[in-house]
Amino acid sequence: MTNTINSIAATAKPAIAGAQNDHISALKFITCGSVDDGKSTLIGRLLVDSKAVLQDHLAGVQRGGETDLALLTDGLSAEREQGITIDVAYRYFATETRKFIIGDAPGHEQYTRNMVTAASSADAAVVLVDATKLDWKNPELALLPQTRRHSLLAHLLRVHSLVFAVNKLDAVQDPVLAFKHIQGALAAFAQAAGISVRATVPVSALKGWNVVDAHAGWCGYEGPTLLQVLEALPNTPADAALPLAFPVQWVEKFSSSSDTSQGRRVFWGRVAAGAVAPGTAVQIFPSGQLATVAQVLDHARRPGDVAAGTSAGIILDREVDVSRGDWILAAPTAAATPAEDDFGDTPAAVPAWPASRELRTTVAWMDDEPLVAGRVYWALHGHRWVKAKVKAVVHKLNINTLAEESATQLDPNAIGHVQLVLQEAIPAAAFSKARVLGSLILVDTASHKTAGAVLIN
Fold this sequence. Notes:
Layout: H1 2-11, E1 27-33, H2 39-49, H3 55-59, E2 62-63, E3 66-67, H4 77-82, E4 89-94, E5 99-104, H5 112-119, E6 124-130, H6 145-156, E7 161-167, H7 175-193, E8 199-202, H8 226-232, E9 245-253, E10 265-270, E11 275-276, E12 281-285, E13 290-297, E14 306-307, E15 311-316, E16 327-330, E17 356-365, E18 371-372, E19 376-381, E20 384-397, E21 404-406, E22 409-410, E23 415-426, E24 439-444, E25 450-456
Parallel strand pairs: 1-5, 1-6, 6-7, 7-8
Antiparallel strand pairs: 2-3, 4-5, 9-10, 9-16, 10-15, 11-14, 12-13, 12-16, 13-15, 17-23, 17-25, 18-22, 19-20, 19-24, 20-21, 20-23, 24-25
């Protein structure tokens, strides 16, 4: 941990004072944790101390003559009335060295689905821990269930960087001892769960200590502030080293064109894996038709190569039946040449992304009705809808002990391993290998509510 903090502190300093940040990718991060840990207040402090809030906006969040920082993100009337965060609120700000997109995720268990939605596209997660809610005098203190749940969900969703921010240490009698014990409990939990933690920072969101401005020596901590940690975090790397996988989102036709040397439709979407360039040999899923990429357009319709994580328009060398929900995949590789005395059939070519109907998955269940074997749901993979049947609930994860417990169902907000059978095969891959191809969502066929987030094992 010390080496990590030192490296962050070293890289947090801008190489050139006043350097423009247009060429640096924005860091998209979420704040999560238990109820009333101070997530909205922390974001408000980041916005105010980084001078990202206008004076008239700041004047509008005054309560009793003092600034209520949480109101800067709690935009729904129900949130302001109840003093809680219900939906994810996104805010934007920038420093001299970095741009940021913040997602304020709710802490209540019943809104876990909102947190999962925000985490699925985040580069980093800041998990807040309220020191006043813990038995901080106990060196073997127990963490709150939501702290564990949100940390596990961020880890399962491949959030690239996880940071713990221990909040409200200014409200305890011995902040040095409290931070020492809480930091130890967080480190033990992360090690047991296999979670890599970038940093653990003591903060006071209310007073602004160690958020943007350092409060030297407080809690015995001499490391970088939370903002300095965030400025040094990397963006989530795209799955660019894999074979091409492109889910078709929209088909644009320009049939009035007189050019018959190539297809007269553009297939738009975002490259999920690999890269696409003119001359790339591809195969259409599920039809299996082969074609060659004739032209690639970027989001501004400029021709050029496009890599994973970027929107693109693909024009093929001929007319091929492709619709929304289909996949444009890298062409299969040739099979090994059989021996001269081999009278068997020629081995089939090896697909770049093999299709499968039976999946072993990890599910974060978010529906009010429990997940049980035999239920049928709609599954969305890329932009393709297929029916999915729950074959078996293998086990659920105990978020307190991290033990895998036998189970016949998953209750709301539970996490477990589930076997699914699909009505049609999909080009599935392990989520640890390919983020887009390895994820699905389950939707209730009657209520049309999102029921679960699925990660393919």
